[in-house]
Amino acid sequence: MTRFTPIAALLLAGTAVLAFKSPSFAADAVVKAPAAALSEPLAGNRETAIFAGGCFWGVQGVFSHVRGVVSATSGYTGGKAWTAQYETVSTGTTGHAESVRVVFDPHQVNYADLLRIYFSVVTDPTELNRQGPDEGTQYRSALFPQSSAQAKVARAYIGQLTAAHTYRAPIVTRLETSQGFFAAEDYHQNFLARNPDYPYIVINDRPKVEALHRVFPQSWKA
């Protein structure tokens, strides 16, 4: 793993550690996926979705800029409550994935729209148990549907992307059942917005936010 351990100590020390030999987010990782053919029925004024797609700093950073998103929270999903701490999750043995809980207004953006953004600029769905420089099951590409309707839309969309050969390799993004979402430590929240010049952010995550603005300008919010 190339993110910094123990991360809190390094942040407090102001250390800028960067593994230049590791792969980073590349422009060719951006694929403008087609709009989903299936979307869920409109119900209520707020919905929640959970996405895992690598380091949660970038996932949260992108979704925070999507019009209609009310909040985006970094956390852990897939394991037990008592293992939902950064240092424990980083061992890759807990079942957790670094994830982001997105609360959104379905009148402005629906779950299918969020999936399109996720598969286009948030994650590379062809990378198994890794994203960019980060390796391990905690960095897997996974969806945690919060309703049967979301599960139906997600399953259909993955099928649609597969049939269209949208990517050069098979999609390995998993649909998983959540055992609960557990918010990450405070120093992880809004990390990209608070540390835009942090080397890891500059190399791996700011390009994703810039890709959102470029590829989906109609979905962008400052």
Tags for this model:
222 residues, alpha+beta, Peptide Methionine Sulfoxide Reductase, Chain A, 6-stranded mixed beta sheet, two-stranded antiparallel ribbon, 8 strands, globular
Helical amount among residues, as a percent range?
Answer: 25-40%
Structure class: alpha+beta
Count of DSSP-assigned helices: 7
Task: Count all strands and give the number.
Answer: 8
Multimerization state: single chain
- Average pLDDT confidence is 89
Q: Label the overall shape.
A: globular
The unreliable regions are: 4-23
Tell me the name of the CATH homologous superfamily. Peptide methionine sulphoxide reductase MsrA
How is the CATH topology named? Peptide Methionine Sulfoxide Reductase, Chain A
Integer count of domains: 1
Overview of this structure, please?
By secondary structure, the chain is of the alpha+beta class. It has one domain (about 5-220): Peptide methionine sulphoxide reductase MsrA (Peptide Methionine Sulfoxide Reductase, Chain A). It is built from 7 helices and 8 strands; from the N terminus they run αβαβαβαβββαββαα. It has helices spanning about 5-15, 55-65, 85-90, 110-120, 150-165, 190-195, 200-215, and strands at about 45-55, 70-75, 95-105, 130, 135, 140-145, 175, 180-185. The strands form 2 sheets. Strands 7-6-1-3-2-8 form a 6-stranded mixed beta sheet, covered by helices on one side. It has a two-stranded antiparallel ribbon with strand order 4-5. Helix 4 (about 110-120) packs across helix 7. The longest helix has 17 residues, at about 200-215. It is globular, with a radius of gyration of 16 Å. The model is unreliable at about 5-25 (pLDDT under 50).
